[in-house]
Structures are given as C-alpha cells and as structure tokens.
Amino acid sequence: MKIVKMNEVPKEPAGSPLFTGPNVTRQSLLSDSKDLRVNIVNFGKGVRNKFHSHDGDQVLIITAGKGFVATTEEKKVVTVGEVVLFPAGEKHWHGATNDSEFSHIVITKVGVKMTQLED
Question: What is the pLDDT of residues 57-114, one digit of tens each?
C-alpha cells in the first residue's frame, strides 16, 4: 500500500506544445504504479490544452478552481468535485476559465497514447 499527500507532491513545469500558455504544472501522484498514470495538472488562468484524443479512456477529477471541458459537440464549465470521462478516441480539450486557476487529477492507463489534433 502507498499513501500520498497531494499537497506534499512537488509541482513540476509541464510546458509543452499541447498547452496554450506556459503556466501549467504537473504533480505525479503514483509514479510507482505499473498500470495507471495518476497526475494532478494545474492550469493558470485562461490556459488550456489544445484539441487532442487518447487511444484509451481518460478520467478527470476536478480538485480546484473552475474550468472548461469541451468536445467538438459541446463545452461545459466544471468545478471542484465533478468527474469527467473522455472515452477513447473522443476529440477534446480542458483547461482554466479566464477568471480562475484550475486543477484536476487525470487518470489513464499506462501506455495510452495521446494525439494532438490542434496546432
């Protein structure tokens, strides 16, 4: 068994071409898991990731702030305590609203590949 205190996990810069701005950090919660990737992603105000998809399901658990989740069909505001499922192959993005920072836990299986679909 392993217990992790989320507030004790260091934030590391997560800048990449996937994000619309530089103010993004990542906290790896269960780096020892052989089956799951579990991270907290923290977005600065107005920052989101670009349209992308995964070849496996992705789960988001909103832990702080207010953000958007969007597909090609809809865009919704999400807040603390909500859980989002993006099924494998669904084109989507997620990130902070302009007036709030935003954090979520992201859970995927190890080996799930992400494809960026927006420049």
Answer: 999 999 999 999 999 999 999 999 999 999 999 999 999 999 999 999 999 999 999 9
Other C-beta atoms closer than 10 Å to the C-beta of 73 total: 8
Tokens 């579990």, residue located: 38
Structure token digits, residue 52:
């992308």
Assess contact for 94 and 47: CB atoms under 8 A. Answer: no
| CA–CA separation, 40 and 107 (whole Å) | 9
> How is residue 38 written in tokens?
């579990």
- Half-sphere exposure of 109 toward its Cβ, with a 13 Å CA cutoff? 10
Q: CB under 8 Å to 103, separation ≥6 — which residues?
A: 40, 41, 42, 43, 62, 63, 64, 65
In the chain the domains, ranked by start, together with CATH numbers, are 6-111 (2.60.120.10)
Tell me how far apart the alpha carbons of residues 49 and 29 are, in angstroms, rounded to a whole number. Answer: 20
